[in-house]
Amino acid sequence: MQAIQSHLFAVREYLSPVLKESKFKEHGRITPEEFVAAGDFLVYKFPVWTWEKGDASKSRDFLPADKQYLVTRGVPCLRRATSLAYTDADEDAERLLNFTDSGAEGDEWVETHAGRKPNMDSAQNAGVIDDIPDLDGPQDDDDVAARIGGLSLASSGGAGTTETPDLDDIPDMEEEDLEAGDEATAAPKTTPAVIDASQVEVAKGNLLQVRTYDVMITYDKYYQTPRVWLIGYDENRTPLTPSQIFQDISADHANKTVTIEPFIHSASLQAASVHPCKHASVMKKVIERMNNSVVEEQLAQRKPSGSTTPAAKDTKKKWPFGRKSSGIGKEEKSGEDEEIEGMRVDFYLVVFLKFIASIVPTIEVDSTTSF
Amino acid sequence: MPIVQFTPFSSIIQPDFWHKLTNLKIDVLKLSDDALTVSGSYSTGRTVKDRESGQEIALGCTIALGDGAFDEREFGVPQGSVRANGTFKNYNTIEDFKAADKTSLFNQEAEKIWNQILTTRSTALLTHFLLITYADLKKYKYYYWFAFPAFVAKPAWELNGEWKGAGGEFSSSQLGSIHTQLKLQKEPLAFFLVRTDTQDVSISPVEEYETFFANTPSSAQTIAFVDPSAAPDSPGWPLRNLLAYLRALYPATTSTVRVLCWRDEHPVVEGLEWRSRFGVLEVGGAEAAAAVTRPQAVGWEKNPQGKLGPRAADLAPMMDPKRLAEQAV
């Protein structure tokens, strides 16, 4: 099932044309060139991110060979998203991106906490589920939810015995006599206890559990947006199981948009991925918001300079004519529009990370606090 | 004076490493259990501020192996990291893995590092490690055990005073200059020397110890290394072998050393403190002649239970097609 679906997606992505024209303000989508530009900016500003080549056989020809995807490794994750407190006050505090002025609740796509509000139930969110292409065809949402509920460790507590790596399987070969005690070896400050999934509720707030994640950002040609992939390690640095990864994803998304899929730049690697079908519309809203504030800021900066130096204003007025021939479309209406560029596409990934940070609230993907 | 305590390396193996090993085992190695060279990398120690409690949490002193590990020549060191090579040995059965003569394997590696120090004076092998594995390909389970050989100083190094922020010893512009010079190196330097000349500082590879520190007062000489540890009071594991190296080759001038634990991958923002640490280490006793015999070495990695034993990675949930199908929605 999964394999067929993945293949279908792969074929569909292969067939869809490369987006040529920039549409990031209108649709929230970006072209591969813009992805590279935004990626370059991200790498420049936040050097924890680097470009990767990936598997040569899987490289995409619309991206530069040495800039196939972005990666940052060892991102700490101090708590489980499932162990975040669910008080009403916290909910208000944590709702990072609420785009709608009208307060139409259905649009609050990126709540960091599972909504307790009655309007966030599955009936309201049915549209979200429908938007994920599913080979099963029309399906009862409750059925889907129930099946996922059965899989989800986070909600069902102790069901995780089979998923937890069974450490008893390690061959009994402790060899304490290999080396004598060494006075210069720093003792670990805290003995990292093996915390299995069923204990998470008990152990919440326990800072010993420092999981880390490798986070990758690829470009999805079909949805024309970036796409995020996660590979996790537990506090003992062994890879996390899918259900353990779901503990770090806000409940809204763990059950709907995050799945384990073959990583597109590797022949065999599996990673958790946030399905990008909603990214464009969310990004569009965020960008609109930010663009307005950026434009206002730029206007405010411009006004004083314009009034003090009339000569400069005159030269600016002339610019539209000068640039008409260069074929920049819509921005020719007036000198004002010409000057005010608004948000540049370079910031796209920075904004994107803010959005992703709300899906995975406890993974510190967003190192961009200065923005 | 307190004995200097070093934060041991801990290994982190990315799943791609196991994928590569699986392919390699099936297509290339087959039943061979010859030793191979693998490449890993480590970077400066990091801390993260907990948003809720405001505490700084030190992340582990890790050395990472990824999918490029088996490709010695092509291996690209991630930005801001330095390379560490190791000897890799995969066993065909769990019995072989259990029965392997670990002491002799370990001593072999330690011997290799020691000989390299004495013969070539190169620092390239100071972070050399040993990795033994057994891969249960049917169950997607991998058993592995790392050793990071480090020479034991007898008597032990002692700390004169205490570890302090590097900002207390160097000016911010000097540290900035070190950062810039490090970035300009063609190959990232895991170990380097710092010379303070009145206002300015210059750095150099450790191999040039004699020429670089000639005519330099000892108070202007500092040895430095990329420190994967983030714990404020214990430098990372690589320093042990650097100290052993200096004691072996330059016993006359290294009974007291000024150490800079380099932890600033990124230049600090104005007003914040540099995270690098500085301390003065002393070694007692005048046993300079002991350099000829190889010191004892330690460094097997402990398992999650804190015992000397192998670790296991269970990738079935991420690799087994059956398990993936169950997960698929």
TrEMBL record, chain A:
Organism of origin: Crucibulum laeve
Keyword Cytoplasm: yes
Composition bias type Acidic residues, residue spans: 131-141
Family: Belongs to the ATG3 family.
One cellular component term from this protein's GO annotations in UniProt: cytosol
Protein name (Swiss-Prot/TrEMBL): Autophagy-related protein 3
Record has Transport as a keyword: yes
Alphabetized GO MF terms: Atg8-family ligase activity
InterPro entries referenced in this protein's UniProt entry, alphabetically: Atg3/Atg10
Gene Ontology biological-process entries: autophagosome assembly; autophagy of mitochondrion; glycophagy; nucleophagy; protein transport
UniProt entry keywords in alphabetical sequence: Autophagy, Cytoplasm, Protein transport, Transport, Ubl conjugation pathway
Cell compartments where the protein resides: Cytoplasm
Region (Disordered) residue spans: 114-141, 152-171, 298-336
